[in-house]
Specification:
The protein is α/β, with parallel strands linked by helices. It folds into two domains: about 350 residues, 4-Layer Sandwich (Purple Acid Phosphatase, chain A, domain 2); about 140 residues, no CATH class. The chain is built from 19 helices and 23 strands. Strands 5-4-1-18-19-22-23 form a seven-stranded mixed beta sheet. β20 and β21 form a beta hairpin. It is globular.
Length: about 625
């Protein structure tokens, strides 16, 4: 068969079910859908008679999390079910051949949700001949082995919180009178359960794959056969040892050739480090830490991964294959080179900065020869580039989540052996996303009646589109969580207490007039503002007074999450006003004004990143070029 390096276009072609895919004349399209976090909103449990709550609009029963839980989480739990189906339908219409799931395809790897993932993938495979390839994220096996789990904030009768747990002792005392639901279907499965359920989606070889291997395989493309590969797909043949503890951990990584000339490299970036205080109990789920940090622990605890990548890159060149890597975690800084400034202003624990991959990680994968990688985990849209001293370039494409703002997925179109076009497909329009709103109204009414604190804003239920809904989700997430966890008190207080016109004046006020970021003498501020308005009548003072510091902060999160995608949701004049107002904070004296000046530079960098919406990657030159 003709090698991919000998042709100008790649394709994808749709052969009959069960037959090997063959070449045609159309470019092949690969969809990347990260961080779906699928929760089965219609799910029932196999070991207990519990159907969920009845939806008065549809008459159906739903097993869902509360809106309050959603608006304090970086991901939606419920509406993303509809978004995933809509994205798959959209991908089918666009002629996509392959769908890649770079981790966190389930809410927390529960049997309830993994069954739903498998059913959806089975349905779309059979109906539309889509081929799926998945890799594990930190929410798929939460720990390497199964462990008891549960959630306290499912939505129960009367809008109250309902605890659903796999063991009764996990249910903490509830503020409601609803008894806990106990079911094994809500435990978190480990690698064995997840990979067994989804073995047909990349995790195991299939007879229609042209090639398949793991980091632990010993055969080569020349000696490969399905019969050789099959026994090596078992977990006992896919483990590595953490030398400091002697613990064997599964690694779900694999390389697959689904069609002639295309290699997809799925990297399992999960690293579960045993806790020193529990050395003698590796069967205890609490023995392991979370894998959420990502690649920063790979070099020290998963040393076989980068050498295997280097080996695969060498083989790909020799075999003339186009190699595309994907995993759950980013390989390159995703903050538009503003991470150092962000640590200085917000601290190491804010904005999930501990998840930013170190320079050594980016350099390590680039030096191994990897040229393009698609990652998720951060629920953001971004493109990062790392170039080594030897001239190797790695392009890291961050795929946004369908469960957060901006909801989107990526399509990579292989235009030639050295050119990949990447388009970001926004999922602002999602059928049925309002279906659960009557249940949320019931929840909100209960919260008001019980005089609960920090009740979520019911305006979110006026959302006309799924895009609007995710904007509201982010806005409430900022109000209910991020402002408390990410922002230093002084700069937060100053921004939240003033509108744009007042901030314009406050930037040049004497720092002695501030205490903990709050202005001691509001009358002085008012006099200075009146004077400024009288002296400069060209300034759009009414427009500046139309927004407050909270609006600026929310729009900053939009830009950080959506990058170029967010610019369609922010008025251009207002964005310019943000930059001009922030640019006036130039104080060298330590205090809130200096912190806001530092924040201004971060804001500016976020607007000057590499193209992340629609672009092409020149693998030969290591360049990312915007497509207009």
């Amino acid at each position: 068969m003709v090698q991919i390096g000998c042709i100008l276009c790649l394709i994808g072609c749709l052969s009959a079910c069960g037959e090997r895919q063959v070449m045609s004349t159309d470019p092949i399209k690969i969809a990347f859908m990260a961080d779906v976090h699928l929760h089965d909103i219609y799910g029932t449990f196999g070991d207990i008679d519990y159907s969920g709550v009845k939806n008065p609009m549809t008459g159906k029963y739903n097993t869902i999390r509360t809106m309050g839980a959603q608006l304090r989480s970086t991901r939606l739990f419920n509406e993303n079910y509809f978004a995933f189906l809509a994205a798959l339908d959209d991908a089918v219409e666009r002629g996509v051949s392959y769908v890649v799931l770079p981790g966190d395809f389930s809410d927390d790897g529960q049997p309830l949700n993994i069954r739903a993932v498998r059913q959806i993938l089975d349905d779309y495979s059979q109906q539309y001949n889509l081929s799926f390839f998945a890799i594990t994220g930190n929410h798929d096996p939460v720990r390497p082995f199964a462990m008891p789990a549960g959630k306290m904030d499912f939505l129960g009768n009367g809008g109250r919180e309902q605890a659903i747990v796999s063991r009764l002792e996990l249910a903490r005392e509830s503020a409601t009178d609803l008894l806990p639901i106990v079911t094994a279907d809500i435990q978190t499965m480990g690698y064995e359960g997840v990979l067994s359920a989804l073995k047909n989606y990349g995790f195991s070889p299939k007879d229609d794959y042209l090639y398949w291997e793991t980091p632990f395989s010993e055969y080569t493309p020349e000696t490969y056969s399905y019969e050789k590969a099959l026994p090596l797909a078992t977990l006992e043949n896919r483990t590595y040892t953490i030398s400091s503890h002697g613990t064997k951990i599964p690694d779900a990584s694999y390389l697959v050739e689904p069609m002639e000339g295309l290699w997809l490299l799925a990297l399992d970036g999960n690293v579960y480090i045993p806790k020193d205080e529990a050395k003698n109990s590796p069967s205890n789920p609490k023995y392991y830490g979370s894998a959420s940090i990502g690649y920063n622990q790979v070099i020290t605890h998963k040393g076989h991964l980068i050498p295997w990548v280097k080996k695969v890159v060498t083989m790909a060149k020799k075999q003339e294959k186009v190699l595309i890597a994907f995993s759950h975690y980013p390989m390159v800084d995703f903050n538009d080179n503003a991470t150092i400034e962000m640590i200085k202003v917000f601290g190491e624990n804010a904005f999930q900065l501990h998840r930013v991959p170190s320079e050594s990680i980016a350099q390590g994968f680039a030096e191994a020869g990897l040229q393009i990688h698609f990652g998720g985990h951060m629920h953001i849209n971004d493109t990062g580039i790392e170039t080594t001293k030897t001239g190797n370039t790695l392009v890291n494409v961050q795929v946004p989540s369908l469960a957060a703002y901006c909801p989107a997925y990526k399509i990579a179109t292989l235009r030639s052996p050295t050119e990949i076009e990447v388009e970001t497909i926004r999922m602002d329009t999602v059928p049925n996303f309002q279906e659960l709103f009557p249940l949320y109204k019931m929840e909100h009414a209960y919260l008001k009646a019980s005089l609960a604190q920090d009740i979520w804003d019911a305006e979110i239920l006026s959302s006309a589109t799924y895009g609007d809904f995710t904007e509201w989700h982010l806005r409430e997430l900022v109000r209910l969580r991020f402002l408390k966890n990410d922002w230093p008190k002084e700069s937060k207080n100053l921004l939240l207490s003033l509108n744009g016109a007042e901030l314009w004046v406050a930037a040049k006020m004497d720092s002695n007039l501030f205490v903990h970021g709050e202005i001691l003498d509001k009358a002085t501020l008012d006099r200075m503002l009146a004077k400024a308005m009288h002296e400069d009548r060209t300034m759009p003072w009414d427009q500046l007074r139309s927004w407050i510091g909270f609006d600026l902060i929310v729009d900053f999160y939009k830009i950080r999450n959506g990058d170029e995608l967010a610019l369609t949701n922010i008025d251009r004049n207002r964005l310019q006003q943000y930059l001009e107002v922030l640019g006036r904070f130039q104080s060298e004296e330590e205090g809130p004004q200096k912190r806001i000046g530092d924040f201004a530079r971060i804001f500016g960098k976020m607007l000057q990143g590499v193209p992340s919406d629609h672009f092409r990657v020149d693998l030969e030159k290591g360049q990312v070029i915007r497509v207009e």
